[in-house]
Write a structure and sequence with these properties.
The protein is 73% helix and 0% strand. It is mainly α and 158 residues long. It has one domain: Ferritin, CATH 1.20.1260.10. Helix 1 runs antiparallel to helix 2, helix 3 runs antiparallel to helix 4 and helix 4 runs antiparallel to helix 5.
Length: 158
């Protein structure tokens, strides 16, 4: 995943693109959290990983529920797998071990949460779908907290 994670900076995505990226981000967070639970020896990082697994699993379920229950959103399907922009970021954690994994996981989490926060903030402020705007706005405090925790894992701010 590059610095923009495939989204277009401050441009607001359409509903389908937003759902695809938000859901793919949740899948990425859950997959890397599982890897951290398997590979990290750092207890703080393992607690963070479990929190990410739980929180992003809940977030994905909430988004699926909105898509299933809101008539104007039923035509949008969440992706079955991670979007292409998330795939490259999985290669390194899958092969890294020990401290290399721990450092990489902390760096990726800080960057991924910064990108997700930017995406949700932009969507909450400027999108035209009120249901998804509310969902994105509700994610902001959670993403801000996750970003602070991820920055603490890597030893500072981005």
């Amino acid at each position: 995943m590059n610095g923009t994670a495939g989204h277009r900076g401050s441009e607001v995505l359409n509903r389908q693109e937003f759902v695809r990226f938000a859901y793919s981000n949740a899948l990425f967070e859950m997959e890397t959290a599982r890897l951290a639970l398997e590979r990290s020896r750092d207890e703080k990082q393992r607690r963070f990983a479990q929190e990410m697994l739980d929180a992003h699993g809940q977030s994905a379920e909430e988004l699926r529920g909105l898509l299933r229950n809101q008539a104007d959103l039923r035509s949008i399907q969440p992706p079955e797998k991670m979007a292409d922009q998330h795939q490259p970021w999985l290669g390194q954690p899958r092969t890294a071990q020990g401290e290399n994994f721990q450092t990489l996981y902390a760096q990726q989490q800080a960057q991924a949460h910064l990108i997700a926060l930017d995406l949700c903030r932009n969507y909450a402020q400027a999108a035209d779908d009120e249901t998804l705007k509310r969902w994105a706005a509700a994610r902001l405090p959670v993403l801000q907290a996750h970003l602070r925790e991820a920055q603490a894992l890597k030893g500072g701010s981005p």
